[in-house]
Design goal:
Blueprint lengths: L33 H14 L3 H27 L1
């Protein structure tokens, strides 16, 4: 039976800590074929992580690469 009034510490004292500096609050939907999805699942199993973790890491690497490229181009144009 639930406690009447709920738990006042829920969400502050009792919450998950995923070890991230910034919380994950946004979603992006990606459509892919079945073979690509299965390859991601297999890779996630090998890496002992989840498919969303793989995708987040790939996006972070892509954004870092693009940012570095843009910085080099802007420095070259100056």
């Amino acid at each position: 039976m639930a406690r009447p009034g709920g738990n006042p510490d829920f969400g502050t004292k009792y919450r998950f800590n995923y070890g991230r500096d910034k919380p994950l609050s946004e979603q992006v939907k990606v459509l892919m074929n079945l073979q690509m999805k299965q390859e991601l699942k297999n890779l996630a199993d090998l890496e002992n992580c989840t498919v969303p973790d793989l995708i987040r890491e790939a996006i972070e690497q892509y954004l870092a690469m693009k940012t570095a490229t843009q910085v080099r181009v802007s420095e070259h144009n100056e």
